[in-house]
Amino acid sequence: MSAEPTGRTHYLNADYGVKSWLLTIDHKRIAILYLISITVFFALGGLMAVLMRLELATPVGDMVQPDTYNRLFTMHGVLMVFFFLLPSIPAVLGNFLLPLMIGAKDLAFPKINLASWYIYSIGGLFTLWSMLHGGVDTGWTFYTPFSTAFSNTYVISTAVGVFITGFSSILTGLNFIVTIHRMRAPGLTWFRLPLFVWAHYATSLVMVLGTPVLAITIFLLGLERLFHIGIFDPALGGDPVLFQPMGWVYSHPAVYILVLPSMGVVSEIVTAFSRKRIFGYKFVAYASVAIAVLGFLVWGHHMFVSSQSPYAGVIFSFLSMLVAVPSAIKVFNWTATLYEGSISWDTPMLYALGFIGLFTIGGLTGVMLATLGIDIHVHDTYFVVAHFHYIMVGGALMGYLGGMHFWWPKITGRMYPIFWSKLSALVIFIGFNLTFLPQFLLGYLGMPRRYHAYPEDFQVLNVMSSAGASILGIGYLIPLVYFIWSMRYGKRAEDNPWDAFGLEWETSSPPPTHNFLETPTVSLEAYDYADREEKRRAAEVSASGAVEPG
Amino acid sequence: MSDHEQVTGVGAYVVVFLALMVLTSLTVGAAFVDLGPFNDVVALAIAFTKATLVVLIFMHVRHASRLTKITVVAGFLWLLILFGITLTDYFSRGFLG
Amino acid sequence: MSTSAEASRAGTPEIPDSKSRAWGLAHHFESFAQQQEASYLGMWLFLVQEIMFFGGLFLAYIVYRTGHPEAFTSGSHELDITLGGINTVVLIASSLTMALAVWAAQKGRSKGIVVFIILTILLGGVFLGIKTVEYSHKWHEHHVPGPHFEWDGPDAPHVQMFFNLYFAMTGLHALHMVVGMALLAVIAVWAWRGAFTKENHNLIEGIGLYWHFVDIVWIFLFPLLYLLGRNGV
């Protein structure tokens, strides 16, 4: 690509037309395709949440039928988990940034990358089709025997959608692992990698190792529902509860697919806006892998009250608490990074700090839920709902938005309005807490999840939650508007608007099609802000020193 | 395979094939001998040996990079984790009577 | 074509623009070695995924078999050990021919690739043919799970569970073979046209790994489904 002085050629203007997008093998364009798709699914899933919160504003079930409510929370869960959160950071930011961060021209398998977007879209269409025909009411976990023998909704087509989408996740993970192993720029050793890359490596492990188990489980569920030859039906000699371990073997680690990339984003942002090397780089890096591995050993905590052996319950309880250790290491290390840093309060930093706070609450309530006695008390109550929303929304989504604000200038070459973006971070933080803090109380008081009506005693807290949800909804609309606005009217972004560290900032904004005009070499440790400042100062001194005598 | 230098020869493939044949007849034969609980053990041990031969020779893992070896081992290890941790639950369900 | 490829391998490691690039080297790789390592690792990761995919079924098998050993034993007595044994031999033989196809590719012998791949496909066909015979036996004996399932002995539901798992596991295995054979057929055509060189035969390596993996699945399925519990008679 020859750079012209007036209009520089980059990945966005290198080619025009629908075909150049739909047949692209450029990881950056595929990231944009994903961005558009997941935004659509997020909007749909959000709409379901709005309807639910509206229904729950009053104790009586007056707005929607109970059946409709069941479909609402199911479709909300399916869309948000499988079609928004799972692909959010990996498929959008990861896709865009991994090759840039490691100085590669593309992912290892660009065509597989494109294929994974198509697979994702086909799965999404199946799910949309079932939604339009009336949806599904099994809950996003598709528990048997309800899903196989009793539900008369569109279980099959939704399950097929989830099954297909799973393979897009597997292929993305596979692609990332190979890319990180084989495509790093010269000098970029493992311990010089940005922590975002480490986090994605750990995430990819979970994707490749966990997703297929869900795939086979859903496959068996489909067989049973379609042909009555499944393995979960007691009439056929099956054990319906076997579905739960097989499902959670993936679905619990899936939570780490959501939150690990977010942690990677936060590591990038916290260092960039504290202008410091991260505290305990290796601990944060290894903690990602530890979370990924331990994440496979804890799913039994979903089955404390579903006929699991009490001995296994004790083991799973212990293992679940163990995951808190690497998670806490990360939180402490981010906090320690802030200490004595020169902190600036740019929008990404607001989101990252929001993440740290909310994730901590989510994590600590997770330890509570891992405790056998407490879990039996609050099982299937709003306490659980609040807990996992603190992880999935307060954690994963805050990280995603933080990342979007951090790298938006790199992705589009434009800046978004500073005031509005800071406002959105604040509104989302307040709205989120107002929505979900009352739910902890509701759950502790005994309000079960998945009901469209409730006793009047719970109304005050429910109204708070619904009010928070509307604030949260507005909070999400603001970035949607200004991001789109900025693509045309935003100020042009510099190559490195945050003066941040990392290879992705060394190429132009937006990057050229092959990312770097020449393959970069790396000689510095990650986030070596101090050393870079020193070198800059030395360069200034020598430059001024060279000029003055002449 | 990561190295062009190490091309496994035809001889090795044929030897492995013959070994697999011997092991197959062995496992069929052993199935009809009453070894008590060890029938299952023998059958699985032979299957595991056969699989290892295929992985090492046919699939070139013997000469592959360390990374590939780790990947293969990790795959089977995760399978064992999946089995082990699930069976912990199923096998200990009766303990309380 | 191999000369230019060799020149680029022996020469500078970096290949700046697309015109001087060796045929078959994708734009984002620096060298054939890097490309090959990537594809080898990628294929192995795919197989790890496959291990976990089949793993779910094996897990269900273990749970149900340990729960109902008698029913599973009487179920496996209905399987034809001769046909299963012959199929094991056939499939392992196909693994041998597959390995030889990869060997031919490493030596750069296109004709050898074609011959060995066709042999592999034929052996795969024999396997599926025998499998079809077995399936049709089961159909006539009313041992296919579902509304037509019939079982005179005790614990019919769990015997049906055995056949459930038998059909799910062997069926999924057979499906993998069909996919593998289709891919092999495409590759045979490409090999016939000389698409593969000593440096660039990742596809054959990859499909070979896949084929061996399918073989390994059968190596476990055969004793688990056909052999366990035979000693009791």
Q: Which fold name is given in CATH as the topology of chain C?
A: Four Helix Bundle (Hemerythrin (Met), subunit A)
Order of helices and strands of chain A: HHHHHHHHHHHHHHHH
**C-alpha Rg of chain A (nearest Å):** 24 Å
The CATH topology label of chain A is Cytochrome C Oxidase, Chain A
Approximately how much helix is present in the residues of chain A? 55-70%
Parts with pLDDT < 50 across at least 5 consecutive residues of chain C: 1-19
Helix % of chain C is over 70%
Tell me, rounded to a whole number, the average pLDDT of chain C. Answer: 88
Shape of chain A: globular
What is the CATH class of chain A?
Mainly Alpha
Question: Order of SSEs of chain C, N→C?
Answer: HHHHHHH
Task: Note the beta-strand portion of chain C.
Answer: under 5%
Oligomeric state of shown chains? heterotrimer
- The count of β-strands of chain C is 0
CATH superfamily of chain A: Cytochrome c oxidase-like, subunit I domain
Q: What is the SS-derived class of chain C?
A: mainly alpha
Radius of gyration of chain C in whole Å, from Cα? 22 Å
General form of chain C: elongated
The helix tally of chain C amounts to: 7
CATH-scheme architecture of chain C? Up-down Bundle
Give a quick precis of the structure.
The complex is a heterotrimer of chains A (550), B (97) and C (233). Chain A has 550 residues and is mainly α.
Blueprint of the fold:
The complex is a heterotrimer of chains A (550), B (97) and C (233).
Chain A: H1 18-22, H2 27-55, H3 66-101, H4 110-132, H5 146-150, H6 155-182, H7 195-227, H8 243-274, H9 281-294, H10 310-338, H11 347-370, H12 372-378, H13 382-412, H14 418-445, H15 459-489, H16 529-547
Helix pairs in contact in A: 2-3, 2-4, 2-15, 3-6, 3-7, 3-8, 3-13, 4-6, 6-7, 7-8, 7-9, 8-10, 8-11, 8-13, 9-10, 10-11, 11-13, 11-14, 13-14, 14-15
Chain B: H1 10-31, H2 38-58, H3 66-91
Helix pairs in contact in B: 1-2
Chain C: H1 2-10, H2 32-67, H3 69-76, H4 81-106, H5 110-140, H6 156-192, H7 202-227
Helix pairs in contact in C: 2-3, 2-6, 2-7, 3-6, 4-5, 4-7, 5-6, 6-7
